[in-house]
Structures are given as C-alpha cells and as structure tokens.
Design goal:
Length: 104
C-alpha cells in the first residue's frame, strides 16, 4: 500500500508531535521503511499501513491506497517537481524503475 497524500501524512505527523524516527520506533518497523513510505516510494504491507494509521489515529483508507504513485499517469498528491541530472524539470517523483516492495 502507498501513502495517498504525502503532505497530509506529514501534517498528521506534526499534529501528533511525532517524527518519522519516533513513528518507526512506536510501531516497531525500520526507520528506512517509514522514510521511503512517507515520500511514496515504498509499497508497505497492509499490516504496516494499519499500524501507521492507528498510530496517527486515522482510518487506513484515509492515508493509504493500493496503487503506486503516478500509476494513473498523474503524479502522486503532494509530489513536487523534480530536477533531473541534465537540468530538466519533470513532474512528480524522481523517475525510478518500479516502486520498491519494502514489504515487512
């Protein structure tokens, strides 16, 4: 499952007074998974998505969805333009082959 809106995710973290590191410790998953998930680059297991949503006191469906960011042809909500190495600006997240599975 992927974060539906990265801005909303980070706002909820701030509202709860948590950092990514604190969230990872609280739910017992590696910080790397939380960091990658928080920018829409990691497909987390449903169980992890539920732990995150519970820790932030919101329904899982509000924070997560099953498709990869940009899979619909649009950039993920909250994604910012990215400047590639050759200086061209692209929309959405930096280009990658496939979002990583990051299953745990």
């Amino acid at each position: 499952m992927y974060v539906r809106d990265v801005r909303r995710f980070h706002r909820l973290l701030r509202l709860r007074g948590m950092s990514l590191r604190e969230l990872a410790r609280h739910i017992g998953v590696p910080e790397t998974i939380i960091v990658l998930m928080s920018v829409g680059r990691c497909d987390v297991a449903l169980s992890t998505a539920r732990l995150v949503a519970d820790a932030l006191a919101v329904p899982t469906r509000v924070l997560f969805h099953e498709t990869a960011p940009g899979a619909s042809g649009r950039p993920a909500a909250g994604a910012r333009p990215h400047r590639s190495a050759n200086g061209k600006t692209t929309s959405g997240l930096p280009r990658q082959r496939t979002p990583g599975p990051c299953r745990n």
